[in-house]
Here is the input.
Amino acid sequence: MNFQKITLVTFGYFENDFLQKLIKKIHTEFFINVQLKEGHLDLSDFYEPNRRQYDANKLLHHFEKEYATDDSKTICLINVDLFIPIFTYIFGQAFLGGRSGIASIYRLNNERYGIEADTNLLLERFAKEIIHELGHTFGLIHCQITDCVMRSGTYVEDIDQKNISFCSKCRENLMLQQNNK
Here is the structure.
């Protein structure tokens, strides 16, 4: 498969200026055209009332089936609390070496933690999460380099400690993956 673009599919409201800044950050990291689409989805099918969260596995599989294409890496942008059975919550998830992933902004804003709103920090966190999930779609696994965007993050502070960029080893692996597609 030859991936010629990255597609961000929004579900729910995101300010256009915020999305345009995200697109710029993602394009800078991948050097691939980034396009934006609006999606529509009944999220009730993915809601687990006992947890009061949304099942990321079910959502990712549905998103893959309905929105992924063979010429694009496609990421679902959403604002809901995601979980997978082995974690209390997650920020995002993707198919390793696949066509799609999901990233949620839900737990990335300061207000959730009783701190003053910071739109620039929110943008930076969300961009890192999207780039991280896109890295997985290009076949990258978690990295042990502390500030690499591919480092696993359990808490929002982990995301803050990472750079928005790949370390040299992950960048090299990414380039190899892109050239082999």
Remarks:
- The mean pLDDT is 94.
- The CA atoms of residues 141 and 150 lie 7 Å apart.
- The chain is about 35% helix and 20% strand.
